[in-house]
Write a structure and sequence with these properties.
The complex is a heterodimer of chains A (389) and B (141). Chain A starts with a strand and ends in a 28-residue tail after the last helix. Chain A is an alpha+beta fold. Chain A has 13 helices and 15 strands. Chain A is 38% helix and 26% strand. Chain A has 2 domains: 2-252, Bira Bifunctional Protein, Domain 2 (BirA Bifunctional Protein, domain 2, 2-Layer Sandwich); 260-375, 2-Layer Sandwich (Enolase-like, domain 1). Chain B is α+β, with helices and mostly antiparallel strands. In chain B, 26% of the residues lie in helices and 35% in strands. The chains are: A alpha+beta (389), B alpha+beta (141). The A-B interface holds A 50-52, 75-78, 98-106, 108-109, 132-133, 145-149, 151, 256-259, 281-284, 310-314, 360 and B 18-20, 38, 41-44, 46-47, 49, 61-62, 65, 67-74, 76, 88, 91-95, 98, 139.
């Protein structure tokens, strides 16, 4: 039975937490460090954007600066999150197969998430891997996932497991497609996400979750876990990577040529008012929010939304995916006709693409979110943080 | 053109066998992009970032980074040299690579340092069909 190292650490800074995962993934790929499972928490709180996201479009810098919330960028993809003492970070660093650089992401994601799913089952949470990037409980997201193939071939699997979550804080830290944040919006998000504590209905210590997740990985991969720590060599390399990458403005505030955009549509349909908001990164749908006063099961709506997360914005592809997701929950969506839903979602996506095209023609205009943050000219520096853990 | 199922491999191109990046020599420059099997394995591309024009790159090393289906990885170049052009349209809309990987979805042009040396390490001509069959079988298994 193979041995993996198990590292447990808590209260780390954003730059240390990310640099450690990145550094170990590279070292494991070069066989300079052993395969490692790291189960850790960040110092409350930090905001972490996905590898290529634009910080200004995802995070409220002014709020973060005023409340000591560090901002940083993950090496892995996906959306922006907040991390702190109630969110367990999972980082699995394994050697990649050198001859298979573009291995199938979805299969790897399902395979790597098995440990965290096992751990949740052991805690009595009926979680399952759904679609390409989520672990869900009854349609509510409880774990976000991402994979990074490091130079040298090492693989880093990242997961953020919600043991608890301060939802109002999250909505103050991250930009959302909502026009305002009231109890209604908080309730909407609460219907799309869940936490371990909510599912088990009691307090749950981080260490208990950590133990179950560790056991879950040992069982899923048939390995034994040897508790350990970073070596002195690793700490030096992590510190260097912090200085050269994760504490630099160049890394944190980088942007890409792919523009973000928002489109929204409100339409009276036979089923009631449909209020759909779509956020795009170029030709990729980042998120779709489906609201209104129609009658439908909230879990079914969450399923529809999740089916379009990080999905092509091609209208036919959107229609096909919605039809498949709808068919799975047709009974719960009977009052919401599929054709109306498809038309309104496609219209919201089309509006976002028009906005994006206009922004490309006028690159200095504000186009990203309904609150006009994209038009800010003053960009507060990210919160300074101690490089030492 | 060698075609296996949904995957086609134009015979005039050169292929990096492990990474599914193609190369097309044209006068003084070599154009590179992802082949149809590489694109299928990755899924919808959301972001591509390349090293800047003027940057030196080495065969088998990263010329850029991409995000697809929430996997982030390096884009490996099949040729050493200097990047002379980006496909700005594909960088703004990476779905172009999914839609037309051998045409409008090309990624970069590189002035090679030693094309003959690089080409000898790539799959080409009559080798393509045999190699492609093996790769598609491996992908489907």
């Amino acid at each position: 039975m193979a041995d993996w190292r198990l590292i447990a650490d808590d209260g780390v800074t954003a730059s240390f937490g990310l640099a450690a995962d990145d550094c170990l993934a590279q070292r494991v790929g070069r066989e300079e460090s052993p395969p490692t499972l790291r189960l850790y928490t960040y110092r409350s709180h930090c905001a972490l954007v996905g590898r290529f996201q634009n910080v200004d479009n995802e995070v409220r810098r002014d709020y973060c600066a005023a409340h000591g919330i560090a901002i940083n960028r993950r090496p892995t993809g996906g959306g922006a999150i907040i991390m702190g003492a109630d969110q367990l970070g999972v980082a699995l660093m394994l050697p990649g197969r050198g001859d298979d650089a573009y291995s199938r992401a979805r299969e790897l994601m399902a395979q790597f998430s098995a440990g965290v799913v096992n751990g949740l089952h052991a805690l009595g949470v009926a979680a399952s891997f759904r679609r390409k990037n989520d672990v869900e409980v009854g349609g509510r997201k409880i774990v976000g996932l991402g994979i990074y193939r490091a130079p040298g071939g090492g693989l880093l699997f990242h997961a953020s497991l919600l043991i608890g979550l301060d939802l109002p804080l999250m909505l103050r830290v991250l930009h959302t497609p909502f026009e305002k944040i009231s109890d209604k919006e908080i309730a909407t998000v609460a219907n799309r996400m869940t936490t371990v504590r909510r599912e088990v209905g009691r307090e749950m210590a981080i260490d208990e979750v950590r133990m179950r997740v560790a056991e879950g990985y040992a069982a899923a991969f048939g390995v034994s876990l040897a508790p350990g720590d970073f070596t002195a060599d690793e700490r030096r390399a992590i510190s260097t990577l912090q200085s050269l990458k994760y504490l630099t403005d160049e890394w944190i505030n980088q942007t890409t040529a792919v523009p973000d955009a928002l489109g929204s549509v409100k339409v009276k349909t036979p089923g009631g008012l449909l209020d759909v908001r779509a956020t795009l990164a170029g030709n990729t749908v980042k998120a779709v929010l489906i609201g209104g006063d129609f009658f439908a099961d909230e879990g079914a709506i969450a399923d529809l939304e999740a089916s379009l997360r990080w999905h092509s914005a091609d209208p036919d592809a959107v229609a096909a995916t919605l039809a498949r997701a709808y068919a799975d929950r047709a009974h719960d969506l009977a009052a919401l006709p599929l054709d109306s839903l498809v038309q309104v979602v496609q219209q919201a996506v089309r509006r976002a693409r028009v906005t994006e095209s206009a922004a490309r023609a006028d690159p200095y205009g504000c186009f990203v979110n309904p609150e006009g943050v994209g038009a800010d000219t003053a960009t507060p520096a990210p919160v300074a943080e101690n490089a030492h853990v | 053109m060698p075609t296996i199922g949904d995957y086609s491999f134009p015979p005039e191109l050169y292929y990096e066998p492990g990474n599914h990046v193609w190369a097309r020599p044209d006068g003084e420059v070599v154009t590179i992009g992802l082949d149809t099997l590489g694109v299928a394995a990755l899924g919808d591309l959301a972001y591509i970032v390349l090293k800047p024009v003027g940057a030196e790159v080495r065969h088998g090393e990263a010329a850029g980074t991409f995000e697809a289906a929430k996997m982030v990885g390096d884009l490996f170049t099949p040729v050493s040299g200097v990047i002379t052009a980006h496909n700005e349209a594909a960088l703004r809309d990476p779905s172009l690579v999914n839609r037309d990987p051998y045409g409008a979805g090309w990624l970069a042009k590189i002035t090679p340092a030693d094309w003959a040396y690089d080409a000898a390490q790539l799959v080409q001509g009559v080798e393509i069909e045999y190699w492609a069959e093996g790769e598609v079988e491996r992908y489907r298994s």
